[in-house]
Amino acid sequence: MTKNSPSKVTMEKMVSLCKRRGFIFQSSEIYGGLGSCWDYGPLGIELKRNIKEAWWRSMVRNRDDVVGLDSAILMAPQVWVASGHAQGFTDPLVECRKCHLRYRADTVQDDKCPSCGGELTEPRQFNLMFKTFMGPVEDSASLVYLRPETAQGIFVNFQNVQVALRKKLPFGIAQIGKSFRNEITPGNFVFRTREFEQMEMEFFVKPGTDQQWFSYWVEQRLNWYQELGIKPQNIRLRPHGRDELAHYASCCSDVEYLFPMGWSELEGIADRGDFDLAQHAKHSGKSLEYFDEESGEHYIPHVIEPSAGVDRSALAFLLDSYDEEADKDGTRVVLRLHPALAPIKVAVLPLSRKEELAKVAREVHADLRNCFMTQYDDTQSIGRRYRRQDEVGTPFCVTVDFQSLEDHQATIRERDSMAQIRVPLAKLKQTLMTKLGGETFGTQQLWSSTAKDAGQTTSA
Ligand code: GAP
After folding, report:
1. Which tens digits make up the pLDDT trace of 121-154?
2. pLDDT digits (tens, 9 = 90+) for 273-299
3. Rounded CA gap, 278 and 58, in Å?
């Protein structure tokens, strides 16, 4: 991106901007809200779609060795026994004996209630999986779980996909979807919620090649965030210590982001070995071995898993792109979002509502919206309209003025530099396409070259 300014954003500012401008609302707000559940508004859903699209493009569409999947949220309960979640997916829970508030034991200090200072109970293990019942009878035989990770849908379909697509190792299966965890202490806006979306990929490899593929995916995933504009000083890798590894992992590295509350996990990349496939083979009685035609061996593949959160990514991209700068009217708030992620790519702004001008502007808008996510805005002064678009990260505004009626040209104004160029109406679409791809604007090189297919992100 063009500028690197010190962070001026707090979580409070971001929550307020997200509500004010239609990115994220509290769930069931008119009933007082539902703890840790959030609704994505018109701009939030575009941002999330763009993040998922960018992930899918980099993980599936641009590769020969990864394919996609969309498995059901509800799965056979035996899946969660085999995966270890039924027994081991727990957090230590403590309760205040005085005010009865509950906390995750590892988040409280001095064994005192953070709210009232009361004495806490001994920790007990609390399973994070949501339960529900399938069918009309609510008994233990109809108990099912809302999945706490999308990964298990991939493992149980390993053989289906491998056979149907005739895939040879190494290859991966990717999936994006909702997961649910009954977190004891959700919080920090959409950072930790009870319903969230994951982007996970299970990469199946020949045993013994784990380390090489683990290093490869760690690098790929770190680069992905940076190519989409996350500033290098705000992102880092943190290898897990032996004592903090999940029950299935032999090695794990987190990609961490410098959120306002401190460095926190954005994504985990784990070496799951043969844990999941071996467990499912044991519990289902089906062989999940792979036949390696080259070596003539049968073996259970090992798995490298990059597992990212859509909501945490959205929060990180919003925070990282937030900027404030002084201008003649006070402060200009701008989201310097990468164009591939920006909810609106182009805003069309007629200088006046006079019919002769509005007619041309509407024609321009109709033409551009076939290609990009656009917005037509003819309310208030042009200055205020520019500020509104800056605040939601729109890379370009197209202004149609009275001169346009004579010279058949319009002005393109760029978000970060606020520089303007005059372009023939007939060349607007093509010009915007190449500028969204990073072509120089005036003297300024726009975002990194990795944006080259940004214009296509929300096309059609
Ligand atoms: N399959 C492995 C797995 O689920 P995880 O570290 O528990 O690993 C992966 O979760 C990612 O999912 C996290 O890095 C985070 O981005 C996201 N995530 C996990 N729990 C979350 C929650 N309660 N709220 C929002 N995102 C969450």
Report:
1. 999 998 999 999 999 989 888 999 999 999 999 9
2. 999 999 999 999 999 999 999 999 999
3. 29
Q: Are 182 and 45 in contact (CB under 8 A)?
A: no
- State whether the beta carbon of 268 lies less than 6 angstroms from ligand 1: yes
Please say whether the beta carbons of 459 and 345 come within 8 A: no
Q: How far apart are CA 444 and CA 2, in angstroms?
A: 8
The set of residues, in sequence order, having a beta carbon less than 8 Å from that of 22 and lying 6+ positions away, is 41, 42, 43, 44
Instruction: Write out the two tokens for 87.
Output: 């027994």
Distances in Å between the Cα of 387 and the Cα atoms of 371, 390, 422 are: 24, 5, 20
Q: CB-based contacts of 38: which residues, under 8 Å, 6+ apart?
A: 24, 25, 26, 27, 189, 190, 193, 311
* Among 228, 266, 322, 326, CA closest to 14: 322
The Cα 76–Cα 304 span in angstroms is 24
For a mutational test of ligand 1's pocket, the pick from 80, 89, 180, 196, i.e. the residue with the most ligand atoms closer than 8 A to its C-beta, is 196
Determine the straight-line distance between the first and last CA of the chain, rounded to whole angstroms.
26
User: Tell me, what's the pLDDT at 448?
Assistant: 59
**Ligand 1 atom 10 nearest Cα:** 307
